[in-house]
Amino acid sequence: GAGWKEIRTVISSIFTSASMKKMHLMFHDQLDNLIEVLQAKARRNGGIMDIYGEYQAMTMDMIARCALGQNISCIKERDNDYYARARYFVANIQFQQSLVVKLSIFFPYVRYLRPFTKFGIAESYLVGILSKSIRGREKEREAGKIRPLPDAIDLLLAENEKRKRSGDNPLHHDVIVSNAWALFLAGYETTSTSLAYASYLLAKHPEIQDTLYEEVTSTFEDDETIDYERVMRLPYLHAVFSETLRLLPPVTTFTSRKCIKETLIGGRIRVPVGAHIVAPVHAVMWDENNYDRPKEFIPERFLGDNNKAVWSATYLPFGIGPRNCVGARFAEMEFKSVLTAVIRRFVLELDPEH
């Protein structure tokens, strides 16, 4: 509807190439911190560690810096309260949602208890900090204080101010908060999961890891800064990114649509108004009719002419169409920057005892 289009237009404005380049500048210190922590843990533990936990802390730092304008340093301080509550919230979100929905069918009052659960308290705490941060940023901008490196909140507020000047309806504070919250969740959990999947796949396929290493080290010197323009143009890195998300998509339930007009498909399948249609993401991307040897990790399928042959309707990690994941470009930038930093310094191997 019109409301969605207005919000989408504003949100999309923060994911242009120019905006991404500005946000990428905030990654540099975070990447250095990650490598420093990984090197220290590798020396202490004989090179063995749970890299997923490191990726979670890293992506938390990145999204907090880029979306909230906050330096919380989870990668170095794991007892950080914000990090602990965010991990608890994300780890329990699907369970809480499914449980509350099911119970509320028979006991309607249950839905009102959610804010008082540990899960609800964590959510309120996190969203409260985000809302307060946005209020504070609004006052800064009203006072003429403009940050040299704008984060997602700055970009959202700047776009909203532009709407006010042009006579368009500005977005309500709650709408800005909810979209910043969605960006936070998407940039934190899904990207850390994808990075963990990629690390596992590269460790399992050392020949692919070697090819990626050659590309990365031929592009960036050992201590050279990983810049936005070059890291986003690396073809084999892009192939690894694309194939990881095809084989092991971190999110498979959001690719759904609600029917707003009764529709007849193929002359025999009636879809009533209000019905929700969910795309079977795994089934589509693991279908032999869409991909050759679909259960195998083959980044080359996304290189050159092979990539051109991939039909967009069969590649669904970010959804499809005008309502696809608006933060896909940010997630890609985050994934590629972190993986490049890691591959440049480390050889990934599976723990022989697991």
From TrEMBL:
<keyword id="KW-0560">Oxidoreductase</keyword>
<dbReference type="GO" id="GO:0016705">
    <property type="term" value="F:oxidoreductase activity, acting on paired donors, with incorporation or reduction of molecular oxygen"/>
</dbReference>
<keyword id="KW-0408">Iron</keyword>
<keyword id="KW-0503">Monooxygenase</keyword>
<keyword id="KW-0349">Heme</keyword>
<dbReference type="InterPro" id="IPR017972">
    <property type="entry name" value="Cyt_P450_CS"/>
</dbReference>
<dbReference type="GO" id="GO:0020037">
    <property type="term" value="F:heme binding"/>
</dbReference>
<dbReference type="InterPro" id="IPR036396">
    <property type="entry name" value="Cyt_P450_sf"/>
</dbReference>
<dbReference type="GO" id="GO:0004497">
    <property type="term" value="F:monooxygenase activity"/>
</dbReference>
<comment type="similarity">
    <text>Belongs to the cytochrome P450 family.</text>
</comment>
<protein>
    <recommendedName>
        <fullName>Cytochrome P450</fullName>
    </recommendedName>
</protein>
<dbReference type="GO" id="GO:0005506">
    <property type="term" value="F:iron ion binding"/>
</dbReference>
<feature type="binding site" description="axial binding residue">
    <location>
        <position position="325"/>
    </location>
    <ligand>
        <name>heme</name>
    </ligand>
</feature>
<dbReference type="InterPro" id="IPR002401">
    <property type="entry name" value="Cyt_P450_E_grp-I"/>
</dbReference>
<dbReference type="InterPro" id="IPR001128">
    <property type="entry name" value="Cyt_P450"/>
</dbReference>
<dbReference type="InterPro" id="IPR050476">
    <property type="entry name" value="Insect_CytP450_Detox"/>
</dbReference>
<dbReference type="Pfam" id="PF00067">
    <property type="entry name" value="p450"/>
</dbReference>
<keyword id="KW-0479">Metal-binding</keyword>
